[in-house]
Amino acid sequence: MNFGMPLLILMIAYFIGTHLEKRHFQSILKREDEARGFPVVSFDTMPDNWTASRSDLVSGSVVISLDYFKRVIAGLRGLIGGRIKTYEPLLDRARREAVLRMIEDARSQGYDAVFNVRLETSRLANATRNGKGTAGVEMLAYGTAVKFASRFANAQ
């Protein structure tokens, strides 16, 4: 019984976390399909064939927490070193979600494209462990949104 309850909690956390992560990835894929064709580039200058009538800063951010199972696996990996594979899908989800939110911000304001896209990330410390553990990650995507002066003059 001493090992049964922690093992049960770990298994429940694993299955719930896996289910939620899978659902989030499905949502991301659907929204990425809807955003396909909306130009988003990391060039720090606007492409020559774009003529903008207005521009503005747009951003999207997300905070994704670590589930208990991933914390346990990462803690074990921290003892021996090496790549922490359990964190990689977390960062992938965070990056893609932040970019999608940035695109949605640009579209909601009537912009046609985003250039000079940048990504920032930060680790959120776990308050219960005196700031030494990772509770989650924040990902911020930002860029310059532009409204084309003439839709036909800007072949994408």
The structural class is: alpha+beta
Main sheet characteristics: 3 strands, antiparallel
Q: Could you give me the name of the CATH homologous superfamily?
A: Hypothetical protein apc22750. Chain B
Which series of helices and strands comes N to C?
Answer: HEHHEE
Shape: elongated
Numbering strands along the chain, what is their spatial order in the largest sheet? 1-3-2
What is the C-level CATH assignment? Answer: Alpha Beta
Number of helices: 3
For the terminal residues, how far apart are their CA atoms? Answer: 63 Å
Radius of gyration: 20 Å
Give a short overview:
By secondary structure, the chain is of the alpha+beta class.
Descriptive overview:
The structure is a single chain. The protein is of the alpha+beta class and 156 residues long. It has one domain (4-153): Hypothetical protein apc22750. Chain B (Translation Initiation Factor IF3, 2-Layer Sandwich). Helices cover 42% and strands 28% of the residues. The protein has 3 helices and 3 strands; from the N terminus they run αβααββ. The protein has helices at 4-35, 68-80, 88-108; strands at 52-65, 113-126, 133-148. The chain has a 3-stranded antiparallel sheet, with helices on one face. The longest helix has 32 residues, at 4-35. It is elongated and about 70 Å long. The N and C termini lie far apart (63 Å). The relative contact order is 0.22. The model has no long low-confidence stretch (mean pLDDT 84).
